[in-house]
């Protein structure tokens, strides 16, 4: 008992004002699943019936009726288990002669308020239990509200459970945020190589942390795991969809053909292995569309592979999304069985787990519907006190390392409300809550320098309360591939481009101090450009090396040193991140994904042409008399894939942007392509997942027109090129409002 703090010694916590909790009578049987998950699965401990009775009384008394909905029981039991192990308790948790469970509960009860434990960050033991961390952009956050990290879990647990809630030790109140702390101190930029590597365990239906060290040269089995993880994420997402859940009464469902809907009015998925011996029957399949070694289309799921015939398939909705090899799609159709396996079978790998005989004739094809962010995190409707109900989902999972929705969501929403002054009835335009986004900043072109001065000068003339919170500068930073020979120049020329950028930034020291800058590389930036010569590189890719950015960093440092202020500001506001990268705004409340890739062009090159997309050519007089040898095969091929032309260019741009956004978000991945079309680092493939859906996404695509599209609550933006091709004296960028969660395309002549 020497390791256990006594109630009469120095307090572990600052005791805040006790919040009233209505005690309840909690039965041990009701608490047993939560206790088993925390003590046995996470901490490898065993509890007795008497211990369970003691814990049920403690949770019912101190957590009240919110013990389940707010996740209070999970947090309290987790603290009890950690205190038991630190006090030297054995594997059997019992109030015996050694470690006293009652004394642990008594110590925790004296430090609880409103069902939560308030730790004192000034205490030595508390600092050991909740180590603090900060990044360059949130270095100015007070210690009382920084994110905590459960690095003290020494039990080898693989479950990605949230950290404790943000708690202040200095009587910090949310009402003080707007006057003391800038919004950008609650912004954290997350590199793809620092993002938690989570994998979905489909047997236990939960996310787990990958404990093995990542490598650029992993085992070959990891390549299979990349596609298996994508399949299981989409499969469990579909099973949570109402259209794939059994109902007590039949309903009329739109979308796929009626062959896949059973008598109870819901869709039912079939595995490919279940097609054996069921020729002539209708099925709905979910699988990975790919090209077989013989050049035929095939569909693969964990149970096997089958050839597919999409010559008569129609897209649902029509022309609503792209379908290309490498994507996971839904196909509704009829299975035709063959006696002998032929065509795509190589090496005799047939049957369950391999290629089955016959082919699947697709009648309709669709992408898997995506799931809204609030449904994934289990966020329900808003209450009268502006708090949110939590209804299942993965609210306990910390996807970005900034805390989970259940642990920190409510607290950070209060801080967001005060920072953005939503409840005070003040003008939202009087606070710095905008993000400026620029893409394809070709520093080797003279027009780019003039455009940058025009944009920076426009914002530098604003008052302090209207300065942007964040500037996001996205590559490519040169027009041609650098350090690859040819017209891109070498390393000296590339460094001179960033030296020129440093000279431009030095003209606006006010922006360098009051705003933060994030730099995201493109495919033409080193070092990957040195061997790719401008073609696609493996993603995620690392930031631009410090060798080229030293003068830019020195410019930011000089700007901060020249400013004398009593307000503590983040000192390093130039952040160089990977591609893709994620930006967390107010913890788990808002998530912004930044990705630079010419996805639209790759989709046009690799996508399928379905039968309903082919426009029949009008017959001309005398066509019946044309001989077969007079027909040019190339002209026939061109006419067969000709698509109907829209009425005007604006309609075509809107349709193309919606089609692109729906394809990417439905796939739930930033790179839904085969590895030969878009290489992926296998051990870091989880950083490309879009699950849960982000609040907003910056999809910088130079081959697509600038657009702003909202789909299933996700706001997708494409800023386009900073200096549009063919334009004279025009700068174009995107401006994202954090409070409204909406982007706007800006243009300015120079």
From TrEMBL:
GO molecular function, one term: DNA binding
Residue ranges, annotated region (Disordered): 610-642
InterPro entries: DNA_pol_a/d/e_bsu, POLE2
Stretches assigned to the DNA polymerase alpha/delta/epsilon subunit B domain: 435-708
Keywords: DNA replication, DNA-binding, Nucleus
GO terms classed as biological process: DNA-templated DNA replication; error-prone translesion synthesis
Principal subcellular localization: nucleus
Any one Pfam family match given in the protein's UniProt record, by short name: DNA_pol_E_B
Location relative to the cell: Nucleus
GO cellular component entries: epsilon DNA polymerase complex
Keyword Metal-binding annotated: no
Assigned protein family: Belongs to the DNA polymerase epsilon subunit B family.
Protein name listed in UniProt: DNA polymerase epsilon subunit B
Organism: Polytolypa hystricis (strain UAMH7299)
């Amino acid at each position: 008992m020497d390791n256990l703090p006594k109630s009469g010694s120095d307090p572990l916590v600052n005791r805040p004002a006790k919040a009233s909790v209505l005690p309840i009578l909690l039965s041990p049987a009701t608490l047993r699943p939560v206790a088993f998950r925390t003590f046995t699965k996470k901490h490898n401990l065993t509890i007795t019936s008497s211990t369970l009775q003691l814990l049920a009384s403690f949770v019912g008394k101190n957590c009240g009726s919110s013990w389940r909905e707010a996740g209070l029981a999970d947090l309290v039991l987790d603290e009890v288990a950690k205190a038991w192990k630190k006090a030297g308790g054995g594997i059997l948790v019992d109030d015996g002669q050694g470690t006293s469970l009652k004394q642990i509960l008594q110590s925790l009860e004296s430090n609880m308020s409103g069902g939560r434990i308030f730790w004192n960050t000034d205490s030595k033991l508390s600092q050991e239990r909740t180590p603090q961390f900060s990044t360059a952009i949130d270095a100015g956050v007070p210690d009382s509200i920084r994110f905590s990290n459960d690095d003290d879990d020494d039990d080898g647990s693989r479950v990605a459970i949230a950290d404790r809630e943000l708690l202040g030790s200095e009587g910090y109140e949310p009402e003080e945020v707007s006057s003391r702390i800038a919004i950008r101190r609650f912004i954290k930029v997350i590199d793809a190589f620092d993002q938690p590597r989570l994998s979905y365990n489909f047997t236990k239906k939960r996310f787990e942390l990958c404990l093995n060290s990542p490598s650029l040269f992993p085992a070959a089995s990891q390549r299979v795991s990349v596609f298996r993880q994508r399949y299981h994420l989409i499969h469990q997402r579909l099973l949570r969809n109402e259209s794939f859940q059994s109902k007590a009464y039949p309903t009329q469902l739109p979308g796929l053909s009626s062959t896949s809907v059973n008598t109870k009015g819901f869709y039912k998925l079939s595995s490919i292995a279940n097609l054996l011996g069921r020729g002539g029957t209708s099925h709905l399949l979910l699988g990975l569309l790919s090209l077989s070694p013989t050049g035929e289309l095939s569909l693969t799921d964990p149970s096997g592979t089958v050839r597919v015939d999409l010559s008569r398939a129609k897209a649902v909705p029509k022309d609503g999304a792209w379908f290309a090899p490498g994507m996971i799609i839904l196909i509704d159709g009829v299975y035709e069985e063959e006696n002998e396996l032929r065509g795509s079978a190589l090496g005799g790998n047939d049957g369950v787990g391999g290629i089955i005989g016959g082919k699947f004739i697709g009648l309709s094809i669709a992408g898997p519907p995506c799931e809204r962010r609030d449904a994934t995190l289990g966020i329900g409707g808003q209450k009268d006190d502006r708090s949110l109900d939590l209804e299942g989902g993965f609210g306990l999972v910390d996807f970005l390392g900034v805390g989970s929705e259940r642990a920190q969501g409510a607290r950070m929403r209060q801080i967001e409300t005060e920072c953005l002054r939503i409840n005070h009835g003040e003008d939202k335009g009087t606070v710095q809550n905008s993000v400026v986004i620029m893409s394809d900043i070709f520093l080797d072109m003279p027009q780019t320098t003039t455009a940058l001065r025009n944009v920076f000068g426009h914002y530098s003339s604003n008052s302090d309360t209207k300065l942007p919170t964040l500037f996001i500068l996205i590559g490519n930073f040169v027009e041609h591939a650098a350090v690859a020979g040819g017209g891109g120049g070498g390393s000296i020329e590339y460094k001179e481009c960033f030296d020129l950028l440093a000279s431009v930034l030095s003209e606006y020291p006010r922006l360098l101090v009051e705003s933060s800058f994030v730099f995201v590389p493109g495919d033409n930036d080193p070092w990957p450009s040195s061997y790719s010569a401008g073609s696609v590189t493996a993603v995620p890719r690392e930031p631009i090396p410090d060798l080229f950015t030293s003068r830019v960093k020195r410019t930011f440092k000089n700007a901060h040193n020249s400013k004398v202020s009593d307000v503590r500001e983040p000192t390093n506001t130039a952040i160089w991140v990977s591609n893709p990268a994620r930006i967390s705004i107010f913890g788990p409340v808002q998530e912004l994904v930044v990705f630079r890739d010419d996805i639209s062009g790759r989709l046009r090159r690799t996508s399928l042409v379905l039968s309903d997309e082919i426009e029949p050519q009008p017959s001309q007089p005398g066509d019946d008399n044309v001989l077969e040898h007079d027909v040019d095969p190339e002209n026939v091929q061109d006419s067969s894939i000709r698509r109907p032309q829209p009425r005007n260019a604006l309609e075509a741009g809107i349709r193309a942007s919606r089609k692109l956004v729906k394809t990417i978000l439905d796939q739930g991945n930033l790179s839904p392509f085969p590895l030969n079309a878009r290489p992926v680092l296998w051990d870091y493939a989880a950083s490309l997942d879009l699950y849960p859906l982000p609040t907003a996404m910056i999809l910088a695509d130079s081959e697509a027109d600038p657009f702003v599209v909202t789909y299933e609550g996700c706001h997708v933006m494409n800023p386009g090129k900073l200096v549009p091709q063919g334009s004279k004296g025009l700068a174009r960028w995107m401006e994202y409002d954090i409070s409204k969660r909406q982007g706007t395309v800006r243009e300015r002549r120079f």
